[in-house]
# Entry
Amino acid sequence: MSERPLLRSWPGRLGIAAAVIVVLALFASALLSRSDGPVFVFAGGPLRSGELVDFDDMDWSAVDDLHELELEIVGAESSRILWFSVDRGMPYVACDLDCVGGVLARWPQQIELDDRVVVRIEGKRIEGRLVHVPHGTTEYEEAKARRSAKYSGTAGGRAAAETAAHNAVVEVGETLTGRASREEPGDRLYRIAPRASSG
# Structure
């Protein structure tokens, strides 16, 4: 007899636990949206700190040994951490999952609405814009080859582990979304370019 009230209370307890989790998630989301940049793997708010440097004064080749940069999508007022590579002195970022026209909502869909970005790397902020590099172009092939070489993981260590995990996620994503069977793949490569002056 004592077990029956206990069993009846489990749905209520589960409901309370679920409500607490939802409230905590909403609270965390609100905090992250106000943060100065992304936090670990979570998207954050606009990039506010760091010295503002002109795009043309930035030596991109000098920072190519780094793996990540912070990227703020101005129109979305959000930021994230992305891998980047440099080819012929120009920086590139990519979304390797099914980014556009697929079942996943990804950051390139925000770039289609507003291509303005702010990059933060080594404590410097650079205003720019993302320029889509189409599949099949010489620029695409060369920049992707440079990116693949940088993140091949042949040196072992962190790069190897991250690359293996990243590739596994991409393969699963391609299977789930059918990207591999489409004429144009859903991944997107972008060149970070100077932002046109408003004057």
